[in-house]
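Re: Re: ligand-bound prediction request (bumping)

Still looking for help on this. To restate: I need the protein modeled with heme C bound, output as structure tokens. Inputs repeated here so nobody has to scroll up.
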Amino acid sequence: MRVRSFVVALLGALTVASTAAAADLELGKKVYAAKCASCHGADGKGNAKMAGMLKVNIPDLSGSAGKSNAELLKLLAEGKKPMPAFAKSLSKDEMDSVLSYAKALVRGSGGK
Ligand code: HEC
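Reply:
Sorry for the wait, this slipped through. Here it is.
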């Protein structure tokens, strides 16, 4: 009985801890794969095929790595043609997480 309530309390604490993390790279990775990779590419360098279809230049995200999260959050929330606005489809946590993931991604590819 005691063990069981301890486990329940522990699980509760873990759930709170994981949802409270503002920037969660696992969540960011999922959101990136679902919402961003089609244009920006799995490596953040841009999907040339999509750029050709949209007839736009998709910037290498490493160019954004130096920008502040506040600046990038605004861009994500409002969109920038042809990039859609994500304010309605993503939560603030998801946007925070995907930005942190994108920054980690481009740093991992040499930080160029
Ligand atoms: C429909 C294709 C498309 C999708 C989907 C998309 N983007 Fe973009 N993104 C673009 C294009 C095109 C630009 C360049 C806009 C411009 O500057 O004119 C851009 C610009 C950006 C920039 C700014 C680059 C800079 O420094 O100027 C960031 C950051 C970014 N996207 C992140 C994301 C993230 C994160 C997601 C997923 C939540 C995403 N994008 C989804 C096409 C897309």
